[in-house]
Design brief:
Blueprint lengths: L1 H16 L20 H26 L7 H24 L3
């Protein structure tokens, strides 16, 4: 059970950082021909969040019964996902080069 938790947390940090990792990569895959726009980065971030939720639900289903979640759960997990993306965002936009 602990291995699944650490794997999920590590995947969350990785998924949160991917939208800011490269100019021509979509979730780490080199599929884009031009640089990303801010709207595309936001869409990629939300897609990564959705993948994180699906991964969490799969892990929860493999360990126990899946519980129904309300809006507060999704609000808190989205904000934690934003916090996990903060280092990559700072590196991409705020770090002096």
């Amino acid at each position: 059970m602990m291995a699944s938790l650490w794997l999920l947390l590590g995947a969350g940090v990785l998924l949160a950082s991917l939208p800011f990792a490269g100019e021509r990569r979509l979730l780490g895959l080199p599929v884009l021909k031009s640089a990303k726009t801010p709207l595309l980065r936001l869409c990629e971030f939300l897609l990564a969040y959705a993948l994180f939720l699906v991964l969490g639900r799969v892990f929860e289903g493999s360990l126990s019964q899946v519980s129904e979640q309300g809006w507060a759960f999704y609000a808190v997990t989205l904000l934690l996902f934003v916090v996990a993306a903060a280092p990559a965002f700072i590196w991409r936009y705020l770090w002096k080069k």
